[in-house]
Amino acid sequence: MSDRLLSVPTVAGLLDVSRRTVYRFVASGELSIVDLRTGAERSRVRIPSADVEALIKRRTVGSPKHRAA
């Protein structure tokens, strides 16, 4: 298995956004989660690294062409 599972704080750090923004990406369907809940305690969610890479590719825009002076 080559796809790593990343924590929400790790994804937030990689994208330079808040944890809240990561959860917004999840809510909008741009990122999927793996729920590792083991009981009644808080849910432990992880995000596949491939999803983070795909999000970056989808949101990458080309630089404007340089205009000749």
Compute the average pLDDT. 88
Secondary structure class reads alpha+beta
Order of helices and strands: EHHEEH
Q: Can you give the helix content as a percent range?
A: 40-55%
Head-to-tail CA distance between termini? 52 Å
State the helix count.
3
Number of beta strands: 3
List low-confidence stretches.
none
Strand content: 5-15%
Q: If you compute it from the alpha carbons, what radius of gyration comes out, rounded to the nearest whole angstrom?
A: 16 Å
Give the gist of this structure.
42% of the residues lie in helices and 12% in strands.
Describe, in plain words, how this protein is organized in 3D.
- The structure is a single chain.
- The chain is an alpha+beta fold and 69 residues long.
- 42% of the residues lie in helices and 12% in strands.
- The chain has 3 helices and 3 strands.
- Strands 1-3-2 form a 3-stranded antiparallel beta sheet.
- The mean pLDDT is 88.
